[in-house]
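Researcher: Let's continue the batch. This sequence belongs to 5-oxoprolinase subunit A, and it's 251 residues. Same format as the previous ones, please.
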Amino acid sequence: MIKRSISLNCDMGESFGSWKMGNDSAVMPHIDMANIACGFHASDPKIMSDTIKLAIAHNVQVGAHPSYPDLQGFGRRSIPLSVEEITSMLIYQIGAIKGLCESHNTELSYVKPHGALYNDMQKDMTIFEAVVDAVSSFNLPLMTLAVTDNQKLLDIADRYDVPLLFEAFSDRHYLANGQLAPRSLPNAVLGSEEEILNQVQQIVQYGKVRTIDGFSIALDADTICVHGDNPQSIRVIEKIRALINGEGSSG
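Model: Same format as before. Here are the structure tokens for 5-oxoprolinase subunit A:
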């Protein structure tokens, strides 16, 4: 029996100029939420606009996917910034994609930070609060990692009246505290289709996940992140969609 309704989200619009990344047109029909890059780690105004139109065509929610200003490093490098700098750079990026959404008569639905900024805000509550402050300017929910103890995050978000969407990952190993295993660790990324589908099934049906060192921990997620970089990953997304819809299982 399915534990609860869980949506699928995916990072989208991460091409830049003539450089193409991902397979957005193949992924979009299978997801519920598109996290669209806002120009600081990938994307440009035309790609942002085209990705919004693609999301509209498939009735997919549009989310802002802002990052540190790090095009060369794809937003995966931490950049030491003040609280005011973080809040301002996020308002800049979210405002840009909100304007593009309005130009297509659709709404921006939520915000999910990208890469190093996403990781940093899980570890540093000062950074998390700077992010929440920026998101509160737009009256939108913030997507953040579902961990074993979300209370600190909820307390900060409540002060700014920002709803939180808790996210799990289909293809990443977890540490015992519910944080993602760093990519520097061996096997941080799940390697096989079977592993990915087993993890999704555990999250959806039981609200649990097995950690990289073999423990089982509770994980209460609203949405699951998938990645669609190649034809093999598209097939896995299709199977995840069926699993969430109750049309199959990993076994």
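Researcher: Any comment?
Model: The mean pLDDT is 93.
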